[in-house]
């Protein structure tokens, strides 16, 4: 038995490492020159720093990521940032932290200094009840009233997780994330980041693990077509060769939704995307990592690591003729006042199709791993129906589920 994994983004790497761990022969191919998909890191000559294509916050309750890293001994490549989420409000320069307690019983809601200023415990409990009872058709703005709590906590968290504005984002999808993190207690909702880069944490150890077991990723190899006969895939046509599948061979198709639809006519997939705007600033080396949320600014979150400050603005891109760098730097300085006044060298990166739009309509289009209806093919990707938002965690969980489906 062999399994052909098409696509070496995080979903494909998750599927491949799951299979290899179980002793399955795996052949993994990737159209791009490198593995990792949208999770990639590179040296940028303009600022002379190694940067991630985009910033990603991991939560301690992301069990899929923890299992994935544990598979090849890389859990030490992500760092916990403690139990606080710091915020700064650009409207009045107010600072506050949200600090859930470790246990499941949320006593932190009854301690004012751990909550958003001007909120009460009942506000959190009522809003979470509204979210968990939301219909699949409801948006977050439909469900949550426009309060200080929504502006200061639910909106920045939801927009970063779903990469969709709350007037369009699925309340049901947001509730799914909260159930697995904040609602389980602070032990499941602590912020975590890559120790160095995302590629160093999530991609390089996975590809090394695969190579050590005879399943090196074949990069620059694009699948052109697949042949289906009698309800199963019988061959894979690459640019350089056509591979016939044996009777017991299977395929995990871990490619973006538009490519999956082109390879599998008739497959319904989400067809609306959202961008993410990132800026990376080269700053003097300073030990330690930190994050901060920004309310009312051009940036949503600011990430700090040695020699680099990065901002992320979800569901956004530069407007016509705009150079957002100065505004983003001002937000970074508001978050970390010790940063210099003058803007340092910067690289602005816009991921135009960062994720699917996680609206109720697009959520309904997310296909199950078996949606292609083929006996020996499973779909993987953060855009598939994982029950999770389209995040790193969703991609990794989708890959492991697809792998188990074809075993």
From TrEMBL:
Residue ranges constituting the Amine oxidase domain according to the UniProt record: 10-407
Alphabetical list of Gene3D superfamilies matching this protein: FAD/NAD(P)-binding domain (3.50.50.60)
InterPro entries attached to this UniProt entry: Amino_oxidase (IPR002937), FAD/NAD-bd_sf (IPR036188), SQase_HpnE (IPR017830), Zeta_carotene_desat/Oxidored (IPR050464)
GO molecular function: oxidoreductase activity
NCBIfam families listed in its UniProt record: HpnE
Protein name (record): Amine oxidase
Species of the source: Roseiterribacter gracilis
């Amino acid at each position: 038995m062999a399994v052909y994994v098409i696509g070496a983004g995080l979903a494909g790497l998750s599927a491949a490492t799951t299979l290899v761990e179980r002793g399955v022969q795996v052949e993994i191919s990737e159209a791009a020159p490198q593995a990792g998909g949208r999770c990639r890191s590179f040296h940028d000559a303009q600022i002379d720093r190694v940067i991630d294509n985009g910033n990603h916050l991991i939560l301690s309750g992301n069990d899929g990521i923890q299992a994935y890293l544990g598979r090849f001994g890389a859990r030490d490549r992500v760092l916990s940032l403690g139990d606080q989420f710091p915020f700064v409000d650009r409207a009045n320069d107010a600072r506050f932290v949200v600090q859930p307690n470790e246990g499941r019983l949320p006593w932190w809601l009854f301690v004012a200094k751990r909550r958003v200023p001007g909120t009460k415990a009942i506000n959190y409990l009522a809003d979470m009840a509204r979210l968990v009872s939301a219909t699949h058709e409801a948006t977050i703005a439909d469900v949550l009233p426009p309060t200080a709590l929504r502006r200061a906590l639910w909106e920045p968290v939801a927009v970063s997780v779903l990469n969709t504005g709350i007037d369009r984002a699925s309340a049901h999808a947001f509730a799914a994330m909260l159930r697995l993190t904040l609602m389980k207690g602070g032990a499941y909702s602590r912020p975590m980041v890559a120790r160095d880069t995302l590629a160093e944490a999530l991609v390089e150890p996975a590809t090394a693990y695969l190579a050590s077991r005879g399943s090196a990723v074949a990069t620059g190899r694009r699948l052109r077509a697949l042949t289906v006969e009698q309800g199963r895939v019988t061959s894979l046509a690459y640019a350089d060769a056509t591979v016939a599948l044996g009777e017991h061979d299977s395929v995990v198709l871990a490619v973006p939704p538009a490519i999956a639809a082109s390879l599998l006519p008739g497959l319904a997939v989400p067809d609306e995307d959202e961008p993410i705007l990132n800026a990376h600033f080269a700053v003097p080396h300073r030990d330690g990592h930190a994050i901060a949320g920004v309310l009312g600014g051009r940036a949503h979150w600011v990430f700090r690591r040695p020699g680099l400050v990065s901002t992320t603005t979800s569901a956004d891109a530069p407007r016509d003729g705009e150079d957002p760098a100065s505004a983003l730097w001002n937000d970074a300085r508001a978050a970390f006042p010790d940063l210099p006044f003058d803007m340092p060298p910067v690289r602005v990166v816009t991921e135009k199709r960062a994720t699917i739009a996680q609206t109720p309509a697009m959520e309904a289009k997310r296909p199950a791993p078996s949606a292609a209806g083929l006996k020996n093919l499973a779909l993987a990707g953060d855009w598939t129906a994982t029950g999770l938002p389209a995040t790193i965690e969703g991609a990794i969980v989708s890959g492991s589920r697809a792998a188990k489906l074809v075993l």
